[in-house]
Design brief:
mainly alpha; two-stranded antiparallel sheet
């Protein structure tokens, strides 16, 4: 896995939030009791009424594409399943598995929400290795530079014929 302190910090935070102290045990006990009273139901999307029958139903929805979760599991076997499913559900909204893997290969983990922010700003995985002065785009991002600033600098390089 590519070393990224942001991902490590995210995993530590996730683990700390789920630690089993006395208060959290009580919260979980109350939640479990409350959920046990509710009828089981799978998440779904309401479907339109059929013209003749007038019946309505739900189309079952998977929280994350199993292909995404499997691809991420291969890259990060130590990450908890719910975190992988959450990251995969975001990625399946914006791109395919191969794009998520390209970001990973370029140095940004798809488990890191910033990858989606960089993508939304207009950066591609190939842009992360390009140089802006003495540092690469990835180095600028890791030092806190805004993705929009990096995009603007890359566009200026292209316009000036430097890149």
């Amino acid at each position: 896995m590519v070393e990224d302190s942001g991902v490590d910090a995210l995993l530590r935070q996730w683990a700390a939030e789920r630690s089993e102290d006395a208060e959290m045990q009580e919260v979980n006990r109350i939640k479990d009791a409350w959920l046990a009273e509710a009828p089981p139901s799978a998440p779904g999307i309401p479907v339109q009424r059929a013209a003749r029958s007038g019946s309505r139903g739900l189309v079952r929805v998977e929280s994350a594409d199993p292909g995404y979760v499997a691809a991420m599991r291969r890259r990060a076997p130590e990450v908890p399943e719910d975190l992988l499913a959450a990251a995969a559900s975001y990625w399946q909204l914006v791109g395919d598995v191969s794009e998520a893997e390209q970001w990973w290969d370029a140095g940004i983990s798809p488990l890191d929400q910033r990858a989606l922010d960089y993508r939304a700003a207009g950066l591609s995985p190939a842009d992360l290795g390009r140089r802006l002065g003495p540092m690469t785009v990835l180095q600028h991002l890791r030092r806190g530079s805004a993705a929009a600033w990096c995009v603007a600098r890359l566009q200026r390089q292209r316009r000036d014929g430097v890149a």
